[in-house]
User: Which sequence fits this backbone?
């Protein structure tokens, strides 16, 4: 490793870290940790378990942010010691190279987090996956995407809860809705919304022909229960039914599953994974409120674009391709980020796509 290259990379890391630290504002972070610590220490905190969970989760997130910043600062300071070791012992060069690469990745991740400053970016997310064109392959693809996002959440320690799953007759799913209850889940996953395409040799085609199928992914912020969204009872129709799983097997013996249809917009929300009808209705109403709030935001944004003379849609009909045959590739068509390991992506390795998507989203917002 040439010395000028090392010096340049170290200088760039320190400049980037200084810029990021200024944006994160460590003094503000300390103040927020102090406030949340006081709330978490309140003797009546767990009188409201949901609120207690939110406070402790936010405190843990802020503390982790501070710890990350402090650790990065220390490791950047130690780079000079590592460089001196290389001068005395060339065998240490590989250790320095590895540390530089790790720090570049960590600071890149931290830089992306500073871009998550949108109105809803800090909130948990509700993700809905629907099978599109492509028959059985599309239903199977939708289930592959569901597994992919749940694995991604699991790998990052994010709590998830599947609210509703509609199984297809032959294989896969027609649709599924689940929560990711973690700070900044919406900001991280918002750019995953859109149409996903799969190209592969179909396992459901006896002729073994290549098949193209599609699935749609919707991501909305999960609004706090205190968010005021006026949904008149006259605007909704509530249907109750018996929950069911694959093959129509009965999951329970009472009509506890709930489907809510919002007449003015046609939005339909189902929830069947809670134990009681009341719990399913509450969960479904919360998701409905989230979707209505996001719809209102999108309509306002569309109106602004129309007034500005820019009516180009933000999302194309196809935002990412997963190709398994005749070659192996996953490519995001908006950011041009691509990898040649589809299986790793389907196993939840989405970090590169999400980082690129966040940068793309912020860039698109600045242009619009």
Assistant:
């Amino acid at each position: 490793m040439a010395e000028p290259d090392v010096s340049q990379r170290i200088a760039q890391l320190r400049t980037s870290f200084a810029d990021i630290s200024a944006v994160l504002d460590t003094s503000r972070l300390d103040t927020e940790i102090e406030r949340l610590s006081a709330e978490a220490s309140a003797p009546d905190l767990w009188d409201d378990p949901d609120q207690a969970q939110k406070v402790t989760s936010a405190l843990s997130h802020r503390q982790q942010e501070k710890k990350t910043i402090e650790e990065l600062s220390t490791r950047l300071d130690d780079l000079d010691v590592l460089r001196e070791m290389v001068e005395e012992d060339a065998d240490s060069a590989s250790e320095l190279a590895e540390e530089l690469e790790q720090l570049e990745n960590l600071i890149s991740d931290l830089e992306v987090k500073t871009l998550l400053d949108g109105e809803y970016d800090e909130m948990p997310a509700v993700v809905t996956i629907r099978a599109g064109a492509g028959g059985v392959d599309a239903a199977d693809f939708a289930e592959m995407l569901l597994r992919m996002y749940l694995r991604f959440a699991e790998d990052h320690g994010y709590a998830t809860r599947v609210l509703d799953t509609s199984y297809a007759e032959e294989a896969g799913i027609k649709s599924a809705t689940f929560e990711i209850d973690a700070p900044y889940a919406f900001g991280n996953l918002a750019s995953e919304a859109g149409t996903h395409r799969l190209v592969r040799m179909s396992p459901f085609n006896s002729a073994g022909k290549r098949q193209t199928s599609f699935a749609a992914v919707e991501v909305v912020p999960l609004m706090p229960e205190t968010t005021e969204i006026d949904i008149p009872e006259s605007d909704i129709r509530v249907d109750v039914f018996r929950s069911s799983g694959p093959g129509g097997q009965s999951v329970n013996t009472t009509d506890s599953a709930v489907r809510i249809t919002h007449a003015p917009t046609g939005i339909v929300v189902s929830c069947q994974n809670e134990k009681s009808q009341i719990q399913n209705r509450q969960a479904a109403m919360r998701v409905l409120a989230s979707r209505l709030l996001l719809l209102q935001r999108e309509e306002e944004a569309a109106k602004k674009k129309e007034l500005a003379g820019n009516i180009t849609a933000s999302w194309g009909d196809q935002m990412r391709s997963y190709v398994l045959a005749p070659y192996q590739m996953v490519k995001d068509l908006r950011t041009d980020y691509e990898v040649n390991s589809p299986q790793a992506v389907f196993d939840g390795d989405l970090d590169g796509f999400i980082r690129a998507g966040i940068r793309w989203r912020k860039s698109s917002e600045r242009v619009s």
Notes: The radius of gyration is 24 Å. The mean pLDDT is 85. The CA atoms of residues 157 and 175 lie 24 Å apart.
